[in-house]
Amino acid sequence: MTKGYSRRKVVGWMGAGTALAIGGASVVWHGINTVPAVSQGWTPKFPGAEASGGGGRLALVRNGDPAAMVDAAMDALGGMGRFVSRGATVLVKPNIGWDRAPELAANTNPELVARVVELCLAAGAASVIVMDRPCNDPRRSYTNSGIQAAATAAGASVLHADDERIRTTNLAGEVLSQWGVYREMMDVDVRINLPVAKHHRLARVTLGMKNWMGCVSGRRGVMHQHINKAVVDLAAFFRPQLTILDAYRVLVANGPSGGDVADVRKIATLCAGADPVAVDTFGASLFQYGPDDISYLRMAEERGLGSRDLSSVGVTELDLSAAG
Amino acid sequence: MLQRIRRCVQAGSLLVFLVLLVLTRYGGTDELAWPVRLYLDLDPLILLGTLLAAHTVPAAFLASTAMLLLTLLLGRAFCGWLCPFGALNQLAGRWRGQSTAKGRNHSHGGRLQGTRYGILLMVLAAASLGFNALGIMDPISLTIRSLGLAIGPVLEWLVRSCFTALYNTAFEPLLAVSEPGYNLLKRTLLSFQQPAFRGAEIIGLIFLAILALNLWLPRFWCRHLCPLGALLSLGARMGSLRLGARVTCNNCGRCSTSCPAGANPHLAGAGGWRPADCFVCGNCTASCKQSLGFDWTWPRLLGGKVQGFDTGRRTILAGTGAGFMLAPLVRVTNLVQPAPPERIRPPGSRPEKDFLARCLRCGECMKVCLTNGLHPMGLQQGLEGLWTPVLVPVRGYCEFNCTLCGQICPTGAIRRLSLGQKQRTSIGTAHVDPMRCLPLALGRDCIVCEEHCPTSPKAIRTVQVRSFLPDGSSVTVHRPLVDPDLCIGCGICEAVCPVLDRPGIRVSSMGETRDPDNQCLLSGGGY
After folding, report:
1. Low-confidence residues of chain A: pLDDT under 50
2. Is B377 left (phi over 0), alpha (psi -120 to 50) or beta?
């Protein structure tokens, strides 16, 4: 052994080194396993929240392909530029709940998603995020719905919801309080809700306001215990600037997952507007439900999220087959 | 020179093996895009064992006979050059300090080193009576199972935890670097979600223990225990590759110190080199300055000097006898009927007896499962069922449109089904537990199981019934009903049930298509 390195010294250093390593590992381990419980003081960006919650006509378009119908609807509403300002970051939230092909109408139509992304980018959006938290395997659902391919080609960044990248947030609702919310869905300037109209056993129909269930993590199944209040709580928190309801193909039975083309009706309809309650009220009418038949519509109106009275809101109707 | 080339090939082979293991996952298409089970297909021990146990030859394995024939030409080059477990053992052996290596006797270990023949005979004898234990001992199957189910998830968990810890600091300059790195890893090396397998710690500990044996004697597993190595030895002892020594040998002994196989290269001049043990690694020729070199002769199939077995009659008898005892011993447990209710086999699984004869316990189906729903079975079905795949619905359900497990199964224990066949194949049946189901037990509406049920029409329907709240008042709720003719036992209802630990709807194997005896209803055709 080299001079100056006595056995005693080496053993001492090794002991000290081991102690340091164990102590350090303990500190690092603690850090790794400590997740901030609630990010207090973290407030989501809601610059456009006041744009929602009433006001603005509905655009109702029939008998076109999904892209043509949304083009016509946005023209009627004054253009996408009214909702998406230059340089804005945009969340487009389709329903990608299920590992089902577009023909089965369990997810939002992929052509519609792609066209909305293109319109946002044309209006000058800095970036468009398309994401959902599916019920089936997310990769399969994104692929089989056709939305991943269509939205990516249109220029959106299609992201998967990551349960390690959530902010536990107080939704401050009647039945929903602390829930994990996906960061990417919150840190945007503009939210565009892009639901598909479907049958649902408990809520009767699933439309725009229920689509926000895809923005929270955790065991969201418990929301069904007070489904109407939960839907309104979500709608009150995630206020979109624009709701575009896809009723190109409509699932009329065995919803919300479906699985049989016999349950699908192709009615080639699209409804868009800034008022989420009005859009959903129209959507319910597609299933022969009146404004009073769906509890969450009434509760949402009472909470001031919008209006169930379509005549007072005003509807611009367009029929693309008549237009030629 | 030989040694350098070998090290490159060995590292490359290990890398290919690991990459294929990482790619054993859903890749965006319904069909697996990569030959992810290549190493299993090239394994002649699996061919032989499946032949004995199930009396069938999976076509992909015919290529593995080439591996056997190659031993006549190249000896056990597979062990030294290609085997991923051999490479891992070699790496583990490097952790031994040089000082201890010098003092150790590296020459042949005598009859102890012939234990591998006993193990080979044991697994083959057991296989001939229908107990497929060879997948437990086969090095490829063992490595896939251990890395895929235990070691891999641990490494992944550490990586994810570190990145999440960085994320939780919410320190933006740091996140600007760490998050893109994390996203890159998620797109490449990491799984889609953190995998976790029930009982995998035992699998991991056994794997680490085998690697730890290298600290005592390098490549202990390969020299003493490996049944695949023993099988390859049979051809290698007659092989045409011969180590020769010229008269210039000065008996320095460096060659044998460098030999990881105990093949006695220092006796090459006297004809004492042992081709059945040699890995053809080239360490000896690299260590020798003047004398050693590999030559080629004709394979000694018909005559000529052939190395004897480094084992005795007792090992042969004990190994074979143990195998013949083992099979009925583990089978007796299974004579107790009915089957454990949690034995929900993947869709396409053959009838249980045939399934057990074929299943290697390699874990490929569990690794590839989309939802992390397939887990290695514990001892619920005795030793015979150990590490065979079962669906654990509370952990993950069987995805309706997925057929990956049937595609990947190397021995056809899980048959490859078309999507249409798979969607009509029942692996069990869901039963509502009225004591736990929220609407029935607590008067709260739910229907989450009905909502998720993937069959069309839905196997779970709801009817409105009267239920009671805890205060005694009555309410109308939606009660779920299962139609056993439509239910395929996929378990998504159990997976999403808000009642977490023991859900209000649970799947058991009852009603599975593959077993006409595991039925409780009289009606013909299925359940």
Report:
1. 1, 37-54
2. beta
